[in-house]
Specification:
Strands 3-2-1-4-5-6 form a 6-stranded parallel sheet, sandwiched between helices. Helices cover 37% and strands 26% of the residues. It folds into 2 domains: 117 residues, NAD(P)-binding Rossmann-like Domain (Rossmann fold, 3-Layer(aba) Sandwich), CATH 3.40.50; 80 residues, 2-Layer Sandwich (Alpha-Beta Plaits). It is α/β, with parallel strands linked by helices and 216 residues long. The structure holds adenosine-5'-triphosphate.
């Protein structure tokens, strides 16, 4: 079982802690605010009130033995988020994921030792905008120079198999999986027939994925 610590139990931090817990991970949740600690307690293995900018506290909590620490401190305490990240690095945490509120904050977090920096507001804004512009692209992540996306199967593909739809040659996207209701068909055979309501998990350039999505 993976061991995680989540520091900062605002709306974002508690969501991370809760979902880690639901996925069976062992979670230590930390905040300076006792009310937030009490609220988190039923959702995690251990919830503690502590100031994460206190070096001694971090050492006592033995964060170095965790697989990952998430610094979810947000906009009201950018200084605390930087200090906590630096201290977590110093005490030997193997993987630090830190939340940034902007580009400069992100660069500083990386400089002091964050292995991964996320900006949930920026990420959600980007995703929402993409979904509003192209509603049939349900989900989209960058993958090297390409995109991995979930696209509603266009009506014109229904009843055809993957070869018949000619999706690879004509639109230059590869179908990695088909989601059909609850079922996921990974590595679908070329003879797999596309059905109404299917969601295609595809890889290709943004432009080619948009062309497929615009058919829907
Ligand atoms: P959200 O958007 O997630 O609600 P926010 O942007 O309002 O968060 P903050 O309130 O700055 O973010 O930080 C989130 C939490 O981090 C708060 O509950 C705060 O008490 C906690 N926090 C701030 N500094 C520390 C610290 N030094 N040690 C532990 N917790 C801290």
């Amino acid at each position: 079982m993976s061991e995680f610590a989540v520091i900062g139990l605002g709306r974002f931090g508690i969501s991370v802690a809760r979902h880690l817990g639901r996925q069976g991970a062992s979670v230590l949740a930390i905040d300076m605010d006792q009310d937030l600690v009490d609220a988190a307690a039923p959702e995690v293995d251990l919830a503690l009130r502590a100031d994460a900018t206190d070096e001694r506290t971090l050492e006592e909590l033995q964060l170095a033995s965790m697989s990952c620490v998430v610094v979810a401190i947000g906009a009201h305490s950018i200084e605390a988020s930087i200090l906590t990240t630096a201290l977590a690095k110093q005490v030997g945490v193997p993987r630090i994921v830190a939340r940034a509120m902007g580009d400069l904050h992100a660069r500083v977090l990386r400089a002091v030792g964050a292995d991964e920096v996320i900006n949930p507001e920026e990420e959600m804004g980007r995703r929402l905008a993409a979904r509003l512009v192209e509603p049939s692209i349900l989900e989209q992540v960058e993958l090297g120079g390409s995109q991995l996306a979930e696209v509603e199967a266009p009506e014109s593909f229904v009843g055809k198999d993957l070869v018949g739809s000619d999706i690879r040659n004509r639109y230059r996207v590869s179908v990695m999986a088909i989601q059909r209701g609850e079922e996921v068909i990974a590595n679908p055979r070329p003879t797999e027939v596309i059905q109404t309501g299917d969601v295609l998990v595809v890889v290709g350039s943004l432009e080619s994925i948009r062309r497929v999505a615009s058919l829907a």
